[in-house]
User: What shape does this take?
Amino acid sequence: MKTSRYPQPALSLLCPMILSLALAGCMSVQLIADYDQKIDDGVTALQKKTETFLVALERTCETREGVYARHVPFYDEVKVDLAALQVRADAIARNSLTSQQIQSLRDSIAKMEAQHKQGLRPIVIAETRKILNSEFTAILALEVAKKKTPTSK
Amino acid sequence: MKLDMDALLKSMLTAAEKELKARWPKARDYAGMEFQKILLEAQHIGELKDANKITEQEATYLMDLQRNAARVVLLTIEGLGIIAVEAAINAALDAVRAAINAALGSWKIL
Assistant: This one.
């Protein structure tokens, strides 16, 4: 006999609850924020800016061109970009997951800046790029999933 | 108001389950792929440290970044789960909307 992977008693309890909500006037339930084009565009642009910076830095980091003092404007610009994204994410209801993700990304950029002050080597930059790209990808994956394309209609 | 509770409940369960079944594999595949990347990256950092290609301080820095990346990935997985549950609840509501509205006569409350 084919059995469901989902606990029937739990669903059986959930359905009357949903029905009650429905009868109370709720047309549909929203548990997470809608997709936001500005977050998507902002994170995509920031990924490109960071990647461009790190690709160039990987080549120049062991020269005078690569010292931190020459790249302060990049960090300032990225901090402003991230602050703007944070404000936008925080302002949207039911968007705490994206807000927390952007907070983590800000922390990662701060750590990268601190490391740059001590000196960055090509091998460390290559790893930094990979890890930061994982963060960017995860943030974008959630944002795109919020488009909530129906799967069963 | 007369509602066939058993039939409606069955419709809601079927609709909710269909949504969960459709969405869970995507979340599971994403989680599996990202967890694997995290483990490989952690292993790679260890190998670089063992081969003296990076210092202990650099390894600590990279692991700190990796921890942040893992957190961001887990938040995405949590979000995918919430989206799946939201879709399941709304599919369940959709499944019984017509029946409830019909039972209530001209009131379109669902």
Q: What stands out?
A: Residues 37-148 of chain A form one domain.
